[in-house]
Specification:
122 residues, alpha+beta, HIT family, subunit A, five-stranded antiparallel β-sheet, HIT-like, AP-4-A_phosphorylase, HIT-like_sf
Amino acid sequence: MHRGRLSYVIMNKFPYNNGHLMVAPYRHVSCLTDLDDDEAIEIMLLVRKSVAVLHRAFRPHGVNAGLNLGEAAGAGIAAHLHFQIVPRWNGDSSFMAVFGETHVIPEHLRSTYTRLLPLFAG
């Protein structure tokens, strides 16, 4: 979606909700304390930009933006720190996600990509 000098924004291939993004440094680090100051600043700027893009594109009622640091905390890729940025709507916790361990996404990933890409340029 977007490349910075030290970090980047990508779409999640297996989104929790439509528009689910991730922000990560190019350098493989597993903890916030491993980031240098320039990386930490750029990552937070990209998290902020990602939230703004999601608000413009989807008008969510809220957004989850966070990290899972380490396998015990739920990190799927524990060796590579990344922020999960998930747009949320009132009532979006459906029985499919809770009981069926699956997510119903109303838009194809390609359509979401096409919708979001120009917003990162602006």
